[in-house]
Here is the input.
Amino acid sequence: KEILENGNECTVTRRQRLPSARMNESVNLWSILRSNIGKDLSKVAMPVQLNEPINTLQRLCEEIEYHHLLDSAADTHNPHMRMVYVAAFAVSAYACSFSRAGGKPFNPVLGETYECLRPDKGFRFISEQLSHHPPVSACHCESKNFTLWQDVRWKNKFWGKSMEIVPMGVSHLELPGFGDHYEWSKVTSCIHNILSGQRWIEHYGEMSIKHTTTTGDVSHCKVTFLKSRSGGSNANEVEGVVTDSEGRVIHCLFGKWNEALYLGKPPSATCIWRANPMPDDNEQYYGFTQFAIELNELEEGLKPLLPSTDTRFRPDQRLLEEGDITGAEEHKERIEVLQRERRRALQENNMTHSPRYFKRAEDDSWVSNGTYWDLRKDPGFSKLEFPVLW
Ligand code: PIF
Here is the structure.
């Protein structure tokens, strides 16, 4: 049962699996990469077969799967324990990537949007593609307990056997109950065996979570994502240290970003977060979690409420989800041509694109302009004009 925004209860049955399993990939990635050596790979149109039926805007929403950790933080009076929950949340965002080295998300087109309204989980989320070259996506998620926003941009580095994805942009979190603000940035991700063998994903580097209130610095947490040693005995390990404003160590954390995070030192440690079990047949279905399976679902009741720019209406992604690779590729190319035409028209008129639901903040980050949910309610997106993206 879900509680709707108007307070009514309704029963929503969400799908338990995608409509179609993943086809065997028959793309020669090497021939694509070889002919684009030295090029920025985000400027190369990739075959749709490399994609999973989810896009970057939805991937940002996937990072919120373990939002209950933020609800716990909002319920915790001790500021250092609050930081423990926030750190666990920041680590949990990586869990879904473990089973996902096989594919890349769809690259949203400029102006594409995505919403995820989950009254059952107590949050509502929006995201928008703000720039095409370089690809920049922003999102904003709110609940009674927290507000979370971030904008992301990647740099790709292709090393031959592996590809590094270096993210830029900052995640922001506010817990209004305490007047807290937290911010952190993402660590580097690396896809190994990109050309042959079993692809696998690794995250490494340091994540520094800063906690401030109007009265100054409160605490800090350094989370280290360890690089795998040869043999892989320490694969996916993370370590964290929470310090107070004077730099004294208050808490220690350890665990694995794909499994669980513990507070304390073994053997007397407390589990703070554990990843949800995966659906049994997930390997055939793109390695998606139950939460990911639900993200691109288009229920009948939702159709008239969404703007036409919502990812759920994007035909190439829908066709891939349904297992029609040929149809998906045709539509992907058609959508790319449309986007090039819109770009040319803007250039010819000396105009630049302006995001619809996000604006620049003083610190140059992108924040919600607060209009999405009001427009959705009144006058309703069906009464507004949108560019034809597909
Ligand atoms: C197309 O995007 P693709 C290109 O941007 C192309 O330049 C553009 O034409 P234009 C098209 O309109 C686009 O559709 C290319 C690139 C996209 C990202 C960033 O979807 C996120 O064809 C990457 O893809 C995160 O992909 C990856 O960039 C996380 O989406 C795992 O660079 C890449 C990925 C490299 C392949 C990795 C393979 C892993 C299995 O004429 O407008 O320029």
Observations:
- Residues 41-46, 50, 56, 103-104, 107, 135, 154, 156, 165, 191, 336, 339-340 surround PIF (CB under 6 Å).
- The chain has a mean pLDDT of 93.
- Residues 2-383 form a domain with the Porin fold (CATH 2.40.160.120).
